[in-house]
Amino acid sequence: MSEQSNNIDPRLLELRDRIDEIDGDIARLISERAECALKVAEVKKATGGDALFYRPEREAQVLRKAMERNQGPLTDEEMARLFREIMSACLALEEPVKVAYLGPEGTFTQQAALKHFGNSAQCRPLAAIDEVFREVEAGAVNYGVVPVENSTEGVINHTLDNFMTSNLVICGEVELRIHQHLMISDITRADAITRIYSHAQSLAQCRKWLDSHYPNVERVAVASNAEAAKRVKGEWNAAAIAGDMAAELYGLKVLAEKIEDRPDNSTRFLIIGSQAVPASGDDKTSLMVSMRNEPGALHDLLEPFQRHKIDLTRVETRPSQSGNWTYVFFIDFVGHRDSENVAAALKEVGAGASDMKILGSYPRGVL
Ligand SMILES: O=C(O)C(=O)C[C@]1(C(=O)O)C=C[C@@H](O)C=C1
């Protein structure tokens, strides 16, 4: 026995033996679970047609159960995160899911993709939101991840506009707490910063902090936070505002942490795909409606939701691409399109609208 293990407290040795035993049990059970997933894949293949290995509604149920069952001491979120990874590995055994996200690597959208699909998914960065839509439409990937709204800065219009012309459906949502950091490279002189790079939304989310700490420094908007981090690598007088992943990916040093003006700063992302998702038991629906431009039109549009006791979670207006002074409303509400009250409300809204498109019903974000 080494000198070191001679000195170890016997209580610690005993506890570690117990942990080894438990790990053995967990490993056996995970393997058993993976065997089950393989059998599920066999059943799906035997059913024929377009076998759907990834099941968003089932995944949401598994994660919710993991949280409900949890008795501590781990938090419900930690427990669900562990199950998220187990399920991601099981799905990869069945068939790896291919996901495109708004890149480059190191963006918050990549973080959202990993949070939603786990580390066993095959994730690929694309340069623009339109490209993510296009790759999913072309079938080059199974799903796409795009940002849709930020709690400080509002909607990402580009994503909403894509839905006007796309036939893809929303299959899920992910919410991410966004922490912005000021970062520099190893050649940057921290006392000589004259330029700060970031995405326009991130610069806006840190406006007050920048006003008080770097009032005279030029703020340069670039295509993404990861792009900002990349640029800083070669510049001695520049800093970037980006998240943890970008700092790690480009080996940057964080000079100031969590500089976002609002501590509850978060971004919502959508999972887009080509197949409608059945009800999971706790779902949301997104809708796109165009209305004639008349007094009371918005009231008439929203009235059926109130009558059928449906909770609206968001109403957004965008100018229509087809004509002057017509508007398109993006509406999110609680409930699945197959449930009775939602189906009834949708029928009435559709009858009163000049156009209506259901963008999808999908499980409410669990993690
Ligand atoms: O239940 C299924 O349909 C499965 O394929 C199993 C499983 C899981 O590991 O629990 C794996 C992937 C699906 O996305 C959902 C759940």
TrEMBL record:
It is found in: Cytoplasm. GO terms for cellular component: cytoplasm. Pfam families: ACT (PF01842), CM_2 (PF01817), PDT (PF00800). Residues 6-98 form the Chorismate mutase domain. It comes from Microbulbifer rhizosphaerae. This is Bifunctional chorismate mutase/prephenate dehydratase. Pathway: Metabolic intermediate biosynthesis; prephenate biosynthesis; prephenate from chorismate: step 1/1; Amino-acid biosynthesis; L-phenylalanine biosynthesis; phenylpyruvate from prephenate: step 1/1. InterPro entries: ACT-like_dom_sf, ACT_dom, Chor_mutase/pphenate_deHydtase, Chorismate_II_sf, CM_dom_sf, CM_II_prokaryot, G/b/e-P-prot_chorismate_mutase, Preph_deHydtase. Residues 286-363 form the ACT domain. Its EC number is 4.2.1.51, 5.4.99.5. Keywords: Amino-acid biosynthesis, Aromatic amino acid biosynthesis, Cytoplasm, Isomerase, Lyase, Multifunctional enzyme, Phenylalanine biosynthesis. Its main location: cytoplasm. It comes from the Bacteria.
